[in-house]
Amino acid sequence: MGTSLPMYVNTEELEVTLTASEASTATQILDSEGRGCAGILFRGVAGALTSTGGKVTVNIYDQATIAEARQYYSVELDFTSLTQTSDTQEPGIPILVDPYVTMTGDSTANTKDFFLLVYAQKISVTG
């Protein structure tokens, strides 16, 4: 019988200047080597805003064309009194295709710089 070991994916941090309207095309989530992240367990996100005030909605999809995409995850990160926060998922959301993300700020977060790190895990089985 094999042993399962959690293998975490080192994803690239995404940086965006927020707008109050969501882009029609999403950004692909990549690992630190610039490769796609298909075949992961999505574990959550960590976000940082340049200053307190505002909320940011993060959505994860199965493709770049949002109108045709399946949404895997959505969270509103609240930066009312802090500049960093996170949201985690247990036991994780399986995503078998390359995931894409959109980030939308409310009117208070509009024009601020936002940094997003995606938590992702692959499973390795050893014999």
Structural description of this entry:
Helix content is 0%, strand content 55%. The protein is mainly beta. The strands form two sheets. Strands 1, 2, 4, 7 and 9 form a five-stranded antiparallel beta sheet that branches. The radius of gyration is 15 Å and the shape is globular.
Q: What's the alpha carbon Rg, rounded to whole Å?
A: 15 Å
Write the H/E string, N to C.
EEEEEEEEE
CATH class: Mainly Beta
Number of contiguous helices: 0
CATH topology: Jelly Rolls
Low confidence ranges: none
Can you give the helix content as a percent range?
Answer: under 10%
**Biggest sheet record:** 5 strands, antiparallel
The percentage of residues in β strands lies in over 45%
The backbone outline, from C-alpha atoms, is globular
How many domains? 1
Number of strands: 9
Q: Determine the N-to-C terminus distance.
A: 7 Å
Give the averaged pLDDT, no decimals.
Answer: 91
Structural class determined from secondary elements: mainly beta
CATH architecture: Sandwich
